[in-house]
Amino acid sequence: xxxxxxxxxxxxxxxxxxxxxxxxxxxxxxxxxxxxxxxxxxxxxxxxxxxxxxxxxxxxxxxxxxxxxxxxxxxxxxxxxxxxxxxxxxxxxxxxxxxxxxxxxxxxxxxxxxxxxxxxxxxxxxxxxxxxxxxxxxxxxxxxxxxxxxxxxxxxxxxxxxxxxxxxxxxxxxxxxxxxxxxxxxxxxxxxxxxxxxxxxxxxxxxxxxxxxxxxxxxxxxxxxxxxxxxxxxxxxxxxxxxxxxxxxxxxxxxxxxxxxxxxxxxxxxxxxxxxxxxxxxxxxxxxxxxxxxxxxxxxxxxxxxxxxxxxxxxxxxxxxxxxxxxxxxxxxxxxxxxxxxxxxxxxxxxxxxxxxxxxxxxxxxxxxx
Length: 370
Known about the structure:
Elements: H1 7-12, H2 20-39, E1 44-52, H3 55-58, H4 61-66, H5 79-87, H6 90-100, H7 102-106, H8 110-120, E2 121-126, E3 130-137, H9 140-197, H10 205-231, H11 240-259, H12 270-309, E4 315-323, H13 331-352
Antiparallel strand pairs: 1-3, 1-4, 2-3
Helix pairs in contact: 2-13, 6-8, 6-9, 9-12, 10-11, 10-12
């Protein structure tokens, strides 16, 4: 029974590889072709390194924080991932094709140019949040132009997204500011009307007036009572001076009771002071809330202007577009060279030492014995 031969044994048994000279000539030529293709024509690598920016790197974090514009328009998404997705997007390729006129330059349709750029240009990230845009081409000027166009197009596209989001936020803030302005005007009018109704620029002073008046009357009554007690040591209760003091005490006591009344009918009473101060507190709180909201919305609205001014500073160019000084190789040619060398070595090893049970190869002969 003829043993099953491996793939290497099958190739080693071909008549074409019968002698070492033939094998050396065939594999040597094929390896030389792969080496030549790997080295020539010479290829160039153009690359640029970028890094997304943030308010801290710009030195504007304090200012933006005061204006309410410190948060990124992209939310909690990683800036690296956003920049990579935008750089690999169709919009960026469209900008590159338009700016460089690649359709006319290559004589291809726009879809074909899109496919060509997608296969030739690589946008990837490195450690440390660094983005690399690179391309290999036989034309160094073309590679540099395309990489440079990719850089500017990515920056512009990120700026467009940022400005669009900022415009949406500005519209909301403007509407909120208008509504709050109307509410603030109504609250101010109600507060002023309340002060005019109570005929005082500051109704809160009524509380101080009532408190001071009560303390004054209580002190005067106590002083009169002490004086009348001293007078009773000398005069009888029927004495006109004693009667006058008693009448004054009664009058001040009645006045004190009137001031302490809880109704709000009289001008100077505890009840009127409490009701007036409670209503005033309510109007003041409403006025303070509306004024705080209005000031906050105005501050955030100013922050959108700063966001527009800094929208183009979304990416820092760490290294400008340049041609790599290292020699570039065509890696499929290198892989072919390695594969051919390994196949040649396997054939030679098989012919020198065939596996046990395999068909032996007669050195220098063009056939394999059965």
